[in-house]
UniProtKB/TrEMBL annotation:
Its main location: nucleus. Keywords: Coiled coil, Nucleus, Transcription, Transcription regulation. This is Transcription initiation factor TFIID component TAF4 C-terminal domain-containing protein. One of its GO terms (cellular component) is transcription factor TFIID complex. Residues 56-305 form the Transcription initiation factor TFIID component TAF4 C-terminal domain. Pfam families: TAF4. GO terms for molecular function: DNA binding; protein heterodimerization activity; RNA polymerase II general transcription initiation factor activity. It comes from Phasianus colchicus (Common pheasant). It comes from the Eukaryota.
Length: 308
């Protein structure tokens, strides 16, 4: 008895009648009749993109399962869940609703609008919160970039050190001033030691200036000795323990010290405290942010900030 097996093969770009492969049972085995066009489509690399899907459909049809009916049944069962929005937190406005509503009404009355729904207040509140969050995030990144140091980074090589150059020039100026002061002091001392009978007004002025300089040096020495005596009477300054809780501020940057667990080294009572780094945003960072933004690059707020 002949047996006919129908296999669906969907070539590329074809959604219509599918070719069939007919197999007839004979005493010597199975005879398969496939047309030359179907052979070319099977051997075509571009026409076999849907072959895996066809295999799945063939297996489902052989098992007696209709995928379209199953999909429709699933959609009908879960139809009540489609389009449902689930929120785990309460939708609270960022700004105070009553004062904001009054302010919006005052501005709307000038334009001839008498009624403002509550959804407008909620929308403006959420927009304000989103805007502030964006500004804070960008300014925080700018501040972190300003505070970041590339001195110890192996991928960066220092080309110039302006701070060291300025210190060197300041040291040169200090040495030059010290040399001039010593020369003037020698001149004044020589003028004070001279005992010429015929003294001109310039010589008298130099002697008076030398006497004032000696008195000033003597007063400075006495003040220095008094300070050293007072420090010796007070005693050595006690250093603050780093393991004590508190706030440690270094260079305008706060490091808050909070209690932690037991330390691995030292006495059992010693505690290890975690340091929390505080990022401080100054006016310069905010000005830089406004200069980079298109909305605020030419605003009145930027000009007012630059005048401060």
């Amino acid at each position: 008895m002949p047996v006919v097996i129908t296999q669906t093969i969907r070539p590329q770009g074809t959604v219509g009648k599918a070719p069939t492969i007919q197999a007839s049972k004979s005493p010597g085995g199975f005879g398969v009749q496939v047309s030359a066009n179907q052979k070319n489509k099977l051997n075509d690399p571009g026409g076999g993109s849907f072959r895996d899907d066809d295999d799945i459909n063939d297996v489902a049809s052989m098992a007696g399962v209709n995928l379209n009916e199953e999909s429709a049944r699933i959609m009908a069962t879960n139809s009540d869940l489609v389009g449902t929005q689930i929120q785990s937190c309460k939708d609270e406005p960022f700004l105070a609703a009553i004062p904001l509503h009054k302010r919006i009404l005052e501005m709307a009355k000038k334009l001839g609008i008498t009624d403002v729904p509550a959804e407008v207040v909620t929308f403006i509140s959420h927009a304000t919160q989103s805007r502030l969050r964006t500004v804070i995030e960008k300014v925080t990144v700018i501040t972190q970039h300003r505070m970041e140091s590339y001195k110890d980074d192996e991928w960066y090589e220092q080309a110039t050190d302006v701070r060291s150059q300025l210190k060197f020039f300041e040291q040169l100026e200090r040495l030059e001033k010290q040399r001039k002061d010593e020369q003037e002091r020698e001149i004044l001392l020589k003028a004070a030691k001279s005992r010429s009978r015929q003294e001109d007004p310039e010589q008298a002025r130099l002697k008076q200036k030398a006497k004032e300089m000696q008195q000033q040096e003597l007063a400075q020495m006495r003040q220095r000795d008094a300070n050293l005596t007072a420090l010796a009477a007070i005693g050595p300054r006690k250093k603050r323990k780093l393991d004590s809780p508190g706030l440690l501020t270094i260079g305008g940057e706060g490091l808050s010290m909070s209690g932690g667990g037991q330390a691995g080294l030292g006495t059992p009572s010693s505690r290890q405290y975690a340091r929390q780094k505080i990022t401080r945003v100054n006016l310069r960072d905010f000005i830089f942010y406004m200069e980079q933004e298109r909305e605020t690059s030419r605003s009145l707020l930027l000009y007012r900030a630059l005048l401060k």
